Write a sequence for this structure.
């Protein structure tokens, strides 16, 4: 397994203390997080630095964006070996209507959807909404 530093280097991302901290923060979460969650975790950090780090991680395929229908973009780490490829790496997301948490269900892949000729797929998102296992007990 790669270290965080090796992962960042392999994606041609310059290693900084803040990038390491944000990666560790995301890795500790079992749920997708908002930019506000990251800002709250790093209150003394510059907001622009946090946003640029997430944007860099997204551009380089370290995190993916999730639109769970709440109107607030969430982010989660990509699984190892993911290239965020629309044909191979898409997975299901689950949004709990009770606790408002969204999780990646990476073991459940979204099948490739063929769109009509002339259409170009740029993003596919499948969110199941309901009650999560923590809230249903």
């Amino acid at each position: 397994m790669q270290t965080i530093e090796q992962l960042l280097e392999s994606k041609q991302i310059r290693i900084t203390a803040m990038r390491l901290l944000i990666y560790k923060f995301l890795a500790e979460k079992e749920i997708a997080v908002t930019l506000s969650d990251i800002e709250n975790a790093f209150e003394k950090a510059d907001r622009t630095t946090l946003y640029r780090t997430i944007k860099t991680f997204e551009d380089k395929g370290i995190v993916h964006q999730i639109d769970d229908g709440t109107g607030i973009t969430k982010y989660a780490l990509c699984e190892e070996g993911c290239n965020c490829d629309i044909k191979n790496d898409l997975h299901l997301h689950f949004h709990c209507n009770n606790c408002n948490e969204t999780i990646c269900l990476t073991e459940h892949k979204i099948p490739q959807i063929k769109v009509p000729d002339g259409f170009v797929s740029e993003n596919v998102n499948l969110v199941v909404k309901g009650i999560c296992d923590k809230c249903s007990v």
